[in-house]
C-alpha cells in the first residue's frame, strides 16, 4: 500500500513538472510571437506612407505621358512603382490577415502539445509577415531615393 501511494505521488509530481515545462514553453512561444508582431506592426504606417509616395510617382509619370513625354525608362519606372506598390499592399494584407486569424487565447486552452504546435506555427507565419514587410519597405525606399 505504501508503495502504491508513493508511486501515485511520484507520478503526479512528474506529470505536474511536465505540465509546468509545457506551460513555460507555451508562454515563451506566445511572448515571442507577440514580440515579433509588436516589432512589425508600427511598420504599417511606413507602408501606407510609401504607398502614397509610389502612387504620386505613378500619377506624375502618367501626367507626363498624357502630355506626350514618354520613354522606355519612364515606362519601366511606372511598372516598377506599380509592382512595389502591390508588394507593400501584400505585406499589409499579410499582417491584417494574420491578426484576424490569430487565436492565442483559444490556443492556450488546447492540449499543451497542440498549443505548442499552434504557437510554433504562428511564429513561422508572423516571421513571414515580418520578412515581407521589411523587404517591401526596403525595396520601395530604394526605388524612391
Structural description of this entry:
The protein has 145 residues and is an all-alpha fold. It has one domain (22-144). The protein contains 5 helices and no strands. Residues 6-10 have low confidence and may be disordered.
Task: Classify the beta-strand content into a percent band.
Answer: under 5%
Main β-sheet, in a few words? none
Number of helices: 5
- The count of domains is 1
The N- to C-terminal Cα distance equals 80 Å
Q: Round the mean pLDDT to the nearest integer and report it.
A: 89
Q: Which structural category do the helix and sheet elements fall into?
A: mainly alpha
Relative helix content: over 70%
Ranges where pLDDT stays below 50 over 5 or more residues in a row are: 6-10
**Order of secondary-structure elements:** HHHHH
DSSP E strands, number = 0
Rg, alpha carbons: 25 Å
Principal-axis shape equals: rod-shaped
Quick tags:
145 residues; 5 helices; 90% helix
Question: Care to give the gist of this entry?
Answer:
This protein is mainly α. It has helices at residues 2-40, 43-66, 72-101, 104-107, 112-144.
Topology:
Blueprint (H helix, E strand, L loop, with lengths): L1 H39 L2 H24 L5 H30 L2 H4 L4 H33 L1
Helix pairs in contact: 1-5, 2-3, 2-5, 3-5
Amino acid at each position: 500500500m505504501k508503495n502504491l501511494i508513493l508511486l501515485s505521488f511520484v507520478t503526479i509530481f512528474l506529470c505536474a513538472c511536465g505540465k509546468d515545462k509545457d506551460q513555460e514553453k507555451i508562454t515563451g512561444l506566445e511572448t515571442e510571437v507577440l514580440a515579433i508582431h509588436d516589432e512589425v506592426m508600427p511598420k504599417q504606417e511606413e507602408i501606407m506612407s510609401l504607398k502614397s509616395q509610389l502612387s504620386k510617382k505613378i500619377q506624375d509619370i502618367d501626367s507626363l505621358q498624357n502630355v506626350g513625354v514618354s520613354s522606355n525608362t519612364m515606362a519601366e519606372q511606372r511598372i516598377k512603382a506599380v509592382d512595389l506598390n502591390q508588394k507593400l499592399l501584400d505585406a499589409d494584407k499579410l499582417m491584417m490577415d494574420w491578426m484576424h486569424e490569430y487565436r492565442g487565447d483559444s490556443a492556450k486552452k488546447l492540449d499543451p502539445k497542440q498549443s505548442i504546435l499552434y504557437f510554433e506555427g504562428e511564429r513561422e507565419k508572423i516571421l513571414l509577415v515580418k520578412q515581407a514587410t521589411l523587404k517591401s519597405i526596403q525595396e520601395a525606399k530604394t526605388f524612391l531615393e
